[in-house]
Design brief:
Oligomer: single chain
Distance between the termini: 31 Å
Number of domains: 2
């Protein structure tokens, strides 16, 4: 297989922008016979009314034959850096912190002397400057220095094998899953996978793209991964 050399060595399958409310979103069945790696990027828009379960499935054909779940271990979420001061106590990694006046919640990924790196959980990303932030496990407290920054950072969020994770009800966030072709049950003929996003029950705008990498053959156009499937809002 060839390495990454830009668009001539990659292929892209979109998950079109849409409201996930009232119907689950199902991506195309993406064939991995000609590729060694896939990066799945899912983005939330300006409305996320409820949490959404994202699941990966695998099948033996582009029509979803013998569908079963596909476990993954590499998941990242866009996070945020909180500048803090007037710290009392010691925050701990993994706990949920809550803003006293904004009521925002986030999970702590890293604790610094004057900052917290967090994954946002509820309420958004605009904290109230000088509000008190409290740790749910440690009971530590601090004051916000600003409203939060560095929302482009990606933080690892999940390491245990699982086929599903829950997208928080937070706007303007990005989630990235990395999978290898070898993670599919290739010994039993499973060489296609699909991204499924469950109906959240409230208006929630999402979109995504699957980037296929490490092709077995390079060139333009890249090897086919969709066969006769058409690009639509949901592939059913």
């Amino acid at each position: 297989m060839f390495g990454n050399e830009g668009f001539q060595n990659e292929s892209y399958v979109m998950i079109p922008p849409q409201d996930a409310n009232d119907a689950a979103i199902e991506s195309a069945w993406i064939g991995m016979k000609e590729y060694g790696h896939a990066t799945i990027v899912v983005m939330c828009g300006d409305t996320v009314g409820a949490t959404m379960a994202l699941t990966l499935d695998q099948a033996t054909s582009s029509t979803g034959t013998a569908t079963k779940t596909l476990a993954f271990t590499r998941l990242m979420s866009s996070g945020q850096k909180l500048l803090i001061n007037t710290v009392s106590g010691t925050f701990v990694v993994g706990e949920t912190v809550t803003g006293g006046s904004s009521s925002l919640t986030a999970e702590v990924y890293e604790v610094g002397p004057d900052y917290l790196l967090v994954r946002n959980l509820t309420g958004g990303t605009t904290w109230t400057t000088t509000e008190t932030v409290t740790g749910g496990t440690s009971a530590a407290t601090c004051k916000m220095n600003g409203t939060g920054e560095a929302e482009n950072i990606l933080l690892p969020t999940y390491t245990a094998p699982s086929s599903t994770f829950t997208i928080p009800a937070v706007t303007y966030k990005t989630y990235v899953i990395e999978i290898e072709a070898s993670m599919l049950d290739v010994d039993n003929g499973f060489d296609h996978f699909q991204v499924d996003i469950a109906d959240p029950g409230a208006s929630s705008f999402v979109a995504g793209v699957v980037i296929l990498k490490n092709p077995r053959h390079r060139g333009i156009p890249m090897p086919d991964a969709l066969e006769a499937q058409k690009m639509t809002s949901t592939f059913t």
